[in-house]
Amino acid sequence: MAKEPVAECCGFLHLHEEAVHKVLSEMPPDETLYDLAELFKVFGDSTRIKILYALFEAELCVCDIAQLLGVSQTAISHQLRVLKNSKLVKFRRDGKTVFYSLADDHVRRIIGQGMEHVTE
Amino acid sequence: MAKEPVAECCGFLHLHEEAVHKVLSEMPPDETLYDLAELFKVFGDSTRIKILYALFEAELCVCDIAQLLGVSQTAISHQLRVLKNSKLVKFRRDGKTVFYSLADDHVRRIIGQGMEHVTE
DNA sequence: TCTATATATGAATATCTGTTCATATGTTAA
DNA sequence: TTAACATATGAACAGATATTCATATATAGA
To answer: In whole angstroms, what is the distance from residue A39 CA to residue B75 CA?
Structure first.
């Protein structure tokens, strides 16, 4: 992902060769890092965080979520699509109603870790 | 955070009263949810993710990071400020050089959880 | 079929964000 | 002090993003 590090940096090399090598060898591929950033971007919006939190407790339909959070149906629907694309939520249709729920436990764990940092 | 839920939703209430109450009672305060989203927003950029990954292995100066990642010094400096404001990195000055390192283990854990979701 | 309801989608817009460029600050050595 | 270097910062610009509005799709019931 990075350029071949040149022999010197700021006039001399603070980082010795071994460390440079270790940093570069442990760095995941660019594409993975990009996907990771994309994932966190999804968590980086308070409307989506609220949706996910609401789904912690119960399976909910679009309209319920909109009511609970005081956000328009359209806005919720757009955000649910984002969450769906990231495989963070799943859904089932029941007649006219579509129920959404958390896709798996990663969501809880990721939010849990973030919460620890925020509330300490 | 949410409006008082009205008695009906989509014409009838999919969510029974108890569930509504539980969702609302378990929901953290708006300010906390906002902070949480702000935190994840910081992780939601591939340049910042790369910086954090580089710091997994070693304490690095601004110039080293820029070289390793192939990004301009100015861009790195701006992003380090964001990471610093979120208390994800700390730094020490040594002469003209400023060395950055991870603030604590939350960073590793949060990225680790995200990585699990991305690479599965 | 037609109507009502629940949800989804596309376009438009205002806001936010990351990078670049120019420049300032802080430190060392001469 | 002056020069050189490492880093930080402010303004500007381009690109991304969340919401709104209008409308489309899907399902149920009459």
So the answer is: 22
